[in-house]
Amino acid sequence: MFNYAKLSAKIPKKGYANTGFLLYIKGDNRFLGKGAYAMVYLPFILVSILETLLVLWFGFTLFNIRIKGYEIHMFIIASLTAHISYSLRADELSYLAPLVQIVYIIICIWGLFKIQVFYSAVVAISAYAYFSIWQSIIFFAGNAWGLFSIENVDRVPIGYIIPFLTFPIGLMSIWVVRRFNLSMDWIPSNHKQKVEWTGFNLTLTFILVAIFILYGLTIYLVSLGAYEYVVIMNILIVILYYLLFNFSKRKDRQL
């Protein structure tokens, strides 16, 4: 997610990096005192919680997993994810935060919702990849139109603009999935059901691992300033996401 902490504290910025799902700003690890530290902590946590809730809601809607009665569980997951994300960024580990978040969400879905780890990974990576695509589009479009860039990052709160632009897109996406019945039912709700390593699941595993690797490469490439390759990485993620959705719908029709 975005490094709201450093962005809000008016710290001299060194550059920005695209994590795939949510951008973060790299800057000096200096704050304006305890009061300023508290001020940047609260907005980061609040925005991060809202984002994680939206990701979970979209993932559960896409795969037709009932969330009624689990609202508190989702809020707890989102809160803990926000604190983990903030802690990593405060310790100058921003490049690890998005990947750690995905792994943590997978574990939480498996533990709290009693869904097999493999299927939990399908839900989490699918949802994160979807929002990664949209936020990358928003950032590059805003950069191309001169709305924000590395030159005016100190004057424009990008860490809040992009997430808030993503919220209506996420809500609209959930509405579209429900309105046009695009959700899929092939993920079993019984956590004791074994995962069959057939051609479908093996193909799905390959796509999920590829998306996760590209996700990590995107973080690394932007840290090097190789933005032209970041565009390529995002295009590949879009293609893989299309394949993931297509294979999932095909599996759903076979049930």
Could you please describe the fold and organization of this structure?
The protein is mainly alpha-helical. The protein has helices spanning 4-8, 34-62, 71-90, 97-112, 117-144, 158-179, 199-223, 227-254; strands at residues 13-18, 23-27. The chain has a two-stranded antiparallel sheet. Strand 1 and strand 2 (23-27) form a beta hairpin. Helix 2 (34-62) packs across helix 3 and helix 7 runs antiparallel to helix 8. The longest helix is centred in the first third of the chain and has 29 residues, at 34-62.
Question: What's this model, at a glance?
Answer:
With 255 residues, the protein is mainly alpha-helical.
Give the SSE map:
Layout: H1 4-8, E1 13-18, E2 23-27, H2 34-62, H3 71-90, H4 97-112, H5 117-144, H6 158-179, H7 199-223, H8 227-254
Antiparallel strand pairs: 1-2
Helix pairs in contact: 2-3, 2-5, 2-6, 3-4, 4-5, 5-6, 5-7, 5-8, 7-8
